[in-house]
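Bench notes, afternoon.
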Amino acid sequence: MVDETQKPVKMTVKELVAHFEGFLVECERKQKQTYGTYQRALREFIKWFPVDKRFRFTTRDVERYKRHLVEKKGLQNVSVGTYMTALRRFCQYLIDIGVLKVNPAKTVVGGRRPSRHSREFLTYQEVEDLLECVDRDSTQGRRDFAIICMMLYCSLSEHECLHADVGDVRARSDGSRLIYVMGKGKTSKDQGVIISKEAEIALDEYLESRYREEEHNPAAPLFPSLSNRTKGSRMTSRGMREAVNRWLKASGVKRGRDRRLTPFSLRHTSGVMMVDKGATLEEVMTRMRIEWRPTAQIYFKLRGSLGTIAPKPKKKNL
């Protein structure tokens, strides 16, 4: 007897395109970047579907499409993973509207994940050199220092820093503070991150300077642009990267590693420092908002190598 849940589903190109458009409408509630990624990735599937002529939404069909991406399109592992994720989400949408009963892409693994991060990490000495280099006599310098500390000591990503507002920083009953962040692909700030003492000192110093002559506005960007042309507006990704890169270069820690040592390296360094302090795998996943275990395990693999590069410095006040 045939399992009805595994029964192939035949669909015309016209029907597929209609479902694709319906899926995009559902995706409009997601981040603009996520919407664009799914739209671009699924366009390849829409083009391939009438050429293949055999796709019936089975696991074997999905595996054949994956081979097409690798062998015919020549896509790298990361890109294949993105395309497969988009197809998996599209199939889930088809389940939600009653077209499919099971997701044929659920068990098909995307591109092979990297065994290590593409960005390099800072040693403890490099972290110290970077922090000491930042000029904190100006509001801009204090802002940049606060961004660096939030990345290093709270594991905030560039995306989370960009979308943070002043009102997202909230006090807890025990006297500590949290910052509520919007993770990548999320539409709401539903994850609270504990602000470490090091980051809290840097953040307070910056906010005191910034709001000395301004009214406190909870809806204002936590890290706004301070240039004459865009002053007060939310920083762009490019602006934040340039701000952090400026100090990475000035401190001398770049040392010709322009492509591999970037602002993203600060968050990765945070993960290794966390492991070095004895954090468990589950704690690293929670505090860094990591959902895939092998990603967090990379930090544990790097723990030994980091310790041989430079000793952990004595604790010092910022």
